[in-house]
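fold-stage: in
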Amino acid sequence: MINLQTILNFPIINEGDIISDIIMDCIKYNKITLQNNDILCVASKIVSIAESRILSLESIIPSPLAYEIHKKVPRKDPRIIQQIINETGAADGSRVEVSDNYIGAWLPNGMRLTSAGIDKFSEDKIILLPINPDESAKNIGEKILNKLGINVAVIITDSDGRIEKRGATQIAIGIYGLDPLRTTSFNGKIIEETICDMFAASAGILMGQRGNNKPVVIISGYEFDFNQSSCINSALAKNKD
């Protein structure tokens, strides 16, 4: 049976904090026993804060393109729009999608995220995604292994919306230890499922939004072969054979 539980009494994360150490401290405080092949779903925002991925809006100068997009999506600050463009790595805006009230962005690794995964941190600051979510996940997993001797998979999750639906859900943007795809066959047909996104969305039910302060969910009971070389790129369409 698959079981999900949150880690309670999680502290507010500050820049420079070591996420793995805080997770282990909270697990000990809550008297939780980690097992090999448990899966930790970790909200990207606490990883971004710890990795100092906070940017002042005053440091961003909007381009004419950002102001043009702002005319179509007036609710979005032109400076944030500019940073969305910056995150795609294409200054000409060719990797930005604008439709009605939606701005989507194709990131250099091939993922498409609403607003390039950028969120408001405060009135004058924004928070960006971790530079390399796979590496962030690996770092957490390896530090827990080194200290506790337990192999845990780690999924870095982020909230993302769909253009045709209201609201958002959690998806996986980085992974360690768990293959992001589950492959099965039926009547000779190969079926691929993004199991990493299934777990991320399930964890999102318990995490809630940032104010709930439940940024880490432990998933137990799922049987899988631990894979230290797993990464989110293997689930992206651009890397499909």
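fold-stage: in (second)
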Amino acid sequence: MSETTKTKEQLKEEFIKNRGYWSKFWEDVLELDSNFFSTYSRFSSVPSKNNTLSPKIREFIYIAIDASTTHLYLPGLKLHMENALALGATRDEIMEVLELTSVLGIHTCTMGVPILMDELRKMGRGDEIDNIEYGGHEKSLKEKFIKNRGYWSPFWDDMLKLSPEFFECYLDFSSVPWKSGTLEPKVKEFIYIAIDTATTHLHEEGARIHIRNALNYGATKEEIMEVFQCVSVLGMHALTEGGPMLRELAEK
């Protein structure tokens, strides 16, 4: 049977088989354009058919991109939390995903601090920053970061120089899931990869760092590619939000 001859009920059953759930907004999209729904269903089902990541981990990816401060898509967030719980995820695991996702705001500093440093140097004020040297406290903070987070990047040096107190607070904040969480390190890195590569953020430097970290923790290229595939469905929220609205207005 071709995709064009499948009934709407068959398309619905196929979606549930591949994706493991159904929602009212899919009903609206299916009703409005069954052909488009069918192509999306096949597109979004590739990860579940390949099954490189476990279904629960895939739901963690969806939770992260929906909860991300650059998206905050509450209908999807609730739905994927329900899915994760149904797949055996614990409250603490989902809380850990949210904690990992909550660090996204620090990209204000990882982007802004290097610009600040560069502009100071261009204005002839480079000595204000270039002459700052690490003391014992700063060195211990750097060592602690590497121990807790498993890596280091040059932009942390700049932030540590400009505001050791703020850096220390961020270190403690971002280290909580690494110290008390139960998700394995590569899965933590998958969450960072997801929120950095989401189309609402596209933070290339962070994505590169966390892809490298995940590979160092033993992740395969297939696993990371599946993270990308899961995140790539984000654009469909144009339909899950707009579809029901269009159907309601058109039927008035």
